[in-house]
Amino acid sequence: MEIEVLEKDDKNMRLLIRGVNVPFINALRRIVITEVPCMAIDEVVMIENSSILQDEIIAHRLGLIPLKTDLDSYNLPEECPCKSEFGCNLCRVTLTLDVESKEGTRTVYSGEFKSENPDIMPVSNKIPIIKLAKEQKLRLEAYIRLGKGKNHAKWQPVSMCTYKYLPKIEVSSKRCDACGKCVEICPRKVLAKTENRIEVRDLMACTLCQDCVTVCPQNPKAIEVGWEEDAFIFSLESTGALPSERILSEATKILDKQLKEFESQIKVKKSEES
Ligand code: SF4
Ligand code: SF4
Ligand SMILES: [Zn+2]
To answer: Which among 66, 65, 62, 64 is positioned nearest to 49, based on CA atoms?
Structure first.
């Protein structure tokens, strides 16, 4: 396997991965979405709510706020030695919200939470939660837990994780008369006309839509668009819960663990049969 980093920052990562197949790359994608844990609000105790929204709607909104996650200091509730349904300091973080509109209408934002661990807070202070009219109050306690996307979408550490085949574009110098129609129609500006030639300017941007092939007046076509069978562009975008690189490294650890478990199951089965 060969990996080339096309783009990487705290939130986004784009890799060119060669030498793998669809089952592998899709397994990695699914693990990123469903198995890499992150933190989310899991339970809310409403102490006072005189807003116009029901408790359940507010609780649902709170659950979907992405939170900065600390995977090294906290346990998944099912793996925590406390074995308590209420949790302990190693598997639960408490947030409190105590807001009131004293004058006119005001919006309550995610930055107004107080956390028992200042490192575990919403990824942005500017996520609107609710509007309060004059004299309306909202007081609540929210319990954050680690969880996995396979149990609820609020525990997905990514807002997007996709892969696509690496495109392969060939222009026949014999058949192409450089009419430029393929350049004009391409929605992603992949192709460019230089002197009397068509060249591929931005291969990665190609969506394999085939519009350039359809528009080509030559018969047979002077341009061919296909894809490499074993090379993929893998992209992920973190919600901000974890750095993009950490999400991918956790996913590879989980994949490795699952494969080892699978291997040991096969060995058990074989020894039972023999
Ligand atoms: S397949 Fe679509 S995106 Fe790719 S080069 Fe042709 S027109 Fe552009
Ligand atoms: S449309 Fe066909 S003939 Fe015209 S420039 Fe493109 S590849 Fe060449
Ligand atoms: Zn615990």
So the answer is: 62
Nearest residue to 95 via CA among 117, 77, 114, 120: 114
Residues 225 and 203 sit within 8 Å (Cβ to Cβ): no
3-state secondary structure of 108: strand
Q: The dihedral of CA 48, 131, 113, 45: what is its sign?
A: positive
Query: Do residues 161 and 33 lie in contact, with contact meaning Cβ atoms separated by under 8 Å?
Result: yes
The 10s digit of each residue's pLDDT in 144-203 is 999 999 999 999 999 999 999 999 999 999 999 999 999 999 999 999 999 889 999 999
Atom of ligand 1 lying closest to residue 207 CA: 3
pLDDT, tens digit (0-9, with 9 covering 90-100), for 7-62: 999 999 999 999 999 999 999 999 999 999 999 999 999 999 999 999 999 999 99
Residues near ligand 1 (Cβ within 6 A): 169, 185-186, 188, 190-191, 206-212, 225
The amino acid that residue 259 corresponds to is L
171 CB within 6 A, ligand 2? yes
**Residue entry with tokens 């190609």:** 206
Strand-pairing partners, residue 108, are 130
